[in-house]
Amino acid sequence: MKSLLFLLILFIFAYSQPILAEADKMVYEKNSIVYIGNVKITKGNELLTADKVIIYLDENRKANSAEAEGKVFYMDGKRTAKADKAFYDFKKDIVQLVGNARIEEGPNFVEADEIVYYRKEERAIAISKNKRVRSFYVEEKEKK
């Protein structure tokens, strides 16, 4: 129980908004927190679901990076993302989607084997080896 309380305090201080993590199983170790089975993590209007999520901790026990695998789905209110696996570097604010990667915003989307999204810079790189990168973009009509 003390370790669970520590984790909750860690998340509250590490982020501007509290994080709620739910799973069938949680394993806390010195350098990581592993959520297994029907994982659902929410923070404000952000939602992440997957079969398994590993949060890697630095020497100060703060979240350094995360890895999600198995039916990964992310939503932040305006944007959704899907992939077989996802990697997130908290310090660099970079998300890497691997395997059947897709990002959608309204009717617009990009699909590839891998998508690397640089959140701070609002830019992405899509790469495919087995199929071509696909994207669809609808221009907004000018308001009169």
TrEMBL record:
UniProt GO cellular component terms: cell outer membrane; outer membrane-bounded periplasmic space
User: What range(s) does the Organic solvent tolerance-like N-terminal domain occupy?
Assistant: 21-122
Q: Which UniProt keywords apply?
A: Periplasm, Signal, Transport
Return the InterPro entries for the record.
Answer: LPS_export_LptA, LptA, OstA-like_N
MF (Gene Ontology): glycolipid transfer activity; lipopolysaccharide binding
Q: Which residues are the signal sequence here?
A: 1-21
Q: What domain of life does the UniProt record list for this protein's source?
A: Bacteria
Q: Name one GO biological process term.
A: lipopolysaccharide transport
Task: State whether keyword Nucleotide-binding applies.
Answer: no
Protein name per Swiss-Prot or TrEMBL: Sugar ABC transporter substrate-binding protein
Source organism: Thermocrinis ruber
